[in-house]
């Protein structure tokens, strides 16, 4: 580990490439100048490519966390006579429901239980029972548990029932397989600072151009987070609706170049190899993992605390040695998270377990 460097094992923000970090120091620029419009167009095009989308799709950028893009999408795309079906098997599925409730949107929460796989038969039954459902919300990688939900199967099912799929791909895009057309995704939401290895502050929504255009006929439920406002400005007028975080956008542009050069499949393999090192190291130390192998994403491992150690004791001991781990939400008490997103190496993982053993020994 480099002197003074923290190894971030939390699921975003992540350790970024030096080129990404340097890019945030780009020269000062007015967001109404042509250079800013060129940067916006370049980033949008690259995001669309990472989403596996074609020329009939567009991506709209927002200055804000991934939750900002989620809220913009849900509040903007569900029509007054529509209804959102939320597939909830973790904290972030629950968040989709909370966003809908905050805007007074009709919604149904199909709750499976944390760390419980989505039951496709239950989804099909819900769609058959309620023809007013127009949209289905799915979290691809549910980081509260580390579960990778079955995007392709859900997409096929939703499309087969003539509904539109909204996908929270915030923690999966850039690492897990995702294809807008093949997965029947109507609206794909992502962020810069997880598997795309950018810095926090930029999120985005990718959708068919026709989908964005159709928002013109729907009521506006907000100002800053009105998706059609951003679409009109960015795609039609080729400018920003509001002042963006240009420095972060410069850094994201560089991160996307690195992403496209590596390729989603290659990055996924790199992450999977690091995840396996983490899982092997934990298992060798008698630490029980939360999920069986078939449900795990390749960028995050959730594990049970062992030997009577509290999360705070483990976190603080590792933090003193330069490693940052992550807690879970209250409903997953007794579990901690180790993410392997970002610019991590095998040496980082080896160093983590040296530190882990020291903390464990200290407590005895």
| Total domain count | 2
| Multimer state | single chain
Structural class: alpha/beta
Q: Report the strand count.
A: 14
Any idea what the CATH architecture of the largest domain is? 3-Layer(aba) Sandwich
Number of helical regions: 12
| Range of helix content | 40-55%
What is the makeup of the main sheet? 7 strands, mixed
CATH superfamily of the largest domain: Type I PLP-dependent aspartate aminotransferase-like (Major domain)
| Strands side by side in the biggest sheet | 2-10-9-8-5-3-4
Q: H/E element string?
A: EHHEHEHEHEEEHEEEHHHHEHEEEH
Give the secondary structure arrangement, pairings included.
Elements: E1 7-8, H1 18-23, H2 34-50, E2 57-63, H3 66-77, E3 84-88, H4 91-102, E4 107-111, H5 120-129, E5 135-139, E6 141-142, E7 147-148, H6 151-160, E8 164-168, E9 185-191, E10 202-208, H7 209-214, H8 227-236, H9 246-262, H10 264-284, E11 300-304, H11 311-320, E12 323-324, E13 326-327, E14 335-339, H12 346-363
Parallel strand pairs: 1-12, 3-4, 3-5, 5-8, 8-9
Antiparallel strand pairs: 2-10, 6-7, 9-10, 11-14, 13-14
Helix pairs in contact: 2-9, 5-6, 10-12, 11-12
Description:
With 364 residues, the chain is of the alpha/beta class. It has two domains: 7-14 and 263-363, Aspartate Aminotransferase, domain 1 (Alpha-Beta Complex); 18-261, Aspartate Aminotransferase, domain 2 (3-Layer(aba) Sandwich). Helix content is 41%, strand content 17%. The chain is built from twelve helices and 14 strands. The protein has helices spanning 18-23, 34-50, 66-77, 91-102, 120-129, 151-160, 209-214, 227-236, 246-262, 264-284, 311-320, 346-363; strands spanning 7-8, 57-63, 84-88, 107-111, 135-139, 141-142, 147-148, 164-168, 185-191, 202-208, 300-304, 323-324, 326-327, 335-339. The strands form four sheets. It has a seven-stranded mixed sheet with strand order 2-10-9-8-5-3-4, sandwiched between helices. A three-stranded antiparallel sheet has the order 11-14-13, with helices on one face. The protein has a two-stranded parallel sheet with strand order 1-12. Strand 13 and strand 14 form a beta hairpin. The chain is globular and about 65 Å long. The two termini are 26 Å apart. The model has no long low-confidence stretch (mean pLDDT 96).
């Amino acid at each position: 580990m480099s002197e003074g460097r923290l190894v971030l094992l939390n699921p975003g923000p992540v350790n970024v490439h030096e080129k990404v970090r340097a890019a945030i120091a780009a020269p000062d620029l007015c967001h109404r100048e042509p250079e800013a419009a060129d940067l916006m167009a370049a980033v949008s095009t690259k995001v669309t490519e990472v989403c596996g989308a074609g020329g009939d799709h567009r991506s709209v950028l927002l200055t804000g966390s991934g939750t900002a893009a989620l809220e913009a999408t849900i509040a903007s795309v569900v029509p007054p006579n529509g209804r959102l079906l939320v597939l909830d098997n973790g904290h972030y599925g629950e968040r989709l429901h909370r966003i809908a409730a905050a805007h007074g949107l009709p919604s149904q929460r199909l709750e499976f239980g944390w760390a419980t796989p989505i039951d496709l038969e239950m989804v099909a039954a819900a769609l058959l029972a309620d023809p007013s459902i127009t949209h289905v919300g799915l979290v691809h990688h549910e980081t509260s548990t580390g579960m990778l939900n079955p995007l392709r199967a859900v997409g096929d099912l939703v499309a087969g029932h003539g509904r539109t799929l909204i996908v929270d791909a915030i923690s999966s895009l850039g690492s897990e397989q995702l294809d807008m057309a093949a997965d029947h995704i109507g609206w794909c939401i992502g962020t810069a600072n997880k598997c795309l290895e950018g810095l926090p502050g930029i999120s985005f929504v990718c959708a068919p151009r026709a989908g964005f255009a159709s928002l013109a006929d729907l009521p506006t439920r907000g100002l800053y987070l009105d998706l059609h406002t951003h679409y009109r400005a960015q795609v039609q007028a080729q400018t920003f609706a509001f002042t963006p975080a240009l420095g972060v956008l410069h850094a994201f542009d560089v991160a996307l170049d690195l992403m496209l050069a590596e390729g989603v499949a290659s990055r996924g393999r790199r992450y999977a190899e690091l995840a396996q090192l983490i899982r092997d190291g934990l298992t060798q130390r008698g630490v029980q993992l939360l999920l069986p192998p078939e449900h795990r994403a390749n960028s995050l491992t959730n594990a049970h605390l062992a030997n009577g150690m509290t999360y705070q004791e483990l976190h603080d001991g590792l933090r003193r040695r330069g490693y940052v781990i992550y807690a879970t939400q209250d409903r997953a008490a007794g579990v901690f998270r180790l993410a392997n997103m970002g610019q991590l190496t095998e040496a980082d993982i080896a160093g983590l377990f040296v530190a882990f053993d020291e903390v464990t020994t200290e407590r005895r």
